[in-house]
Write a structure and sequence with these properties.
The protein is of the alpha+beta class and 231 residues long. It contains 8 helices and 7 strands, in the order H-H-H-E-H-H-E-E-E-E-H-H-E-E-H.
Length: 231
């Protein structure tokens, strides 16, 4: 075979190989945000729903459903603050394990509790509540809220519902804002020394001292009238 024919065959073969690799590459590289079948990118589809039935990108709808329906339903199942503090008086770790939930290995313990007590003192940011029959008070946080307690204490929210940590953190911001505006704001003027309050709250405990006193963000809060106290 002549040298010219060998060169021609080699050239044709190279061109064919290039064409095949162009149309059928061994590796495809996608820019972030491009179409892909990965789990994270599938969840970016506005029509995709997470385990809780809400669009993973529609934070507003997710919060609305969580706040107005699922959270009130869960509130009736919240543990009694009396039981938690009674046990914590002698066994803090036991109380955290029995009544709390841990998010992440070695992370804080979150508590979802309900109770009733008398206000002993009030400041701009906190309301100290004495629970009848217990030595330990409860502090209701009524100032500017920056905690993840509402998001993480109930067990109603799964990080897998959200495509990234930014959206997951935004959920906390949205819930804290709802709490400040719709729970604390309407009753702030009624939170005075001597008033009886009923509450459902979310707390974050990082160590043994976190239960002395126990701090809760109220997701339900109301003052109890004299008639209701006698019921």
């Amino acid at each position: 075979m002549s040298v010219q024919k060998k060169i021609a065959r080699l050239t044709v073969g190279t061109l064919m190989a290039c064409a095949l690799l162009y149309f059928f590459p061994l590796v495809r590289i996608h820019k972030l945000g491009s179409t892909s079948t990965s789990k994270a990118e599938i969840s970016l589809n506005p029509n995709t729903t997470g385990p809780n039935g809400a669009s993973t990108l529609d934070i507003t709808t997710f919060v609305e459903t969580l706040w107005t329906k699922r959270l009130p339903e869960a509130a009736s199942q919240a543990a009694s603050v009396d039981d938690v503090l009674a046990m914590a008086a002698t066994d803090v770790d036991g109380a955290r394990k029995k009544y709390g939930r841990e998010v992440g290995l070695g992370g804080p313990t979150f508590l979802f509790l309900r109770g009733r007590g008398k206000i002993e003192s009030v400041s701009e940011d906190e309301c100290l509540v004495i629970i009848d029959g217990l030595a330990q008070p409860v502090v209701l946080e009524i100032g500017i809220l920056v905690s993840n307690a509402i998001r993480d204490a109930t067990g109603l929210v799964n990080v897998g519902d959200f495509p990234n940590s930014q959206d997951f953190n935004q959920l906390s911001t949205e819930l804290n804002g709802r709490c400040e505006l719709e729970v604390i704001g309407p009753v702030r003027a009624q939170l005075v020394v001597g008033a009886i309050v009923e509450f459902v709250g979310c707390g974050e405990v990082r160590d043994e001292d976190g239960l002395n006193p126990l701090k809760l963000i109220p997701v339900q809060l109301k003052t109890v009238t004299a008639t209701e106290q006698g019921e």
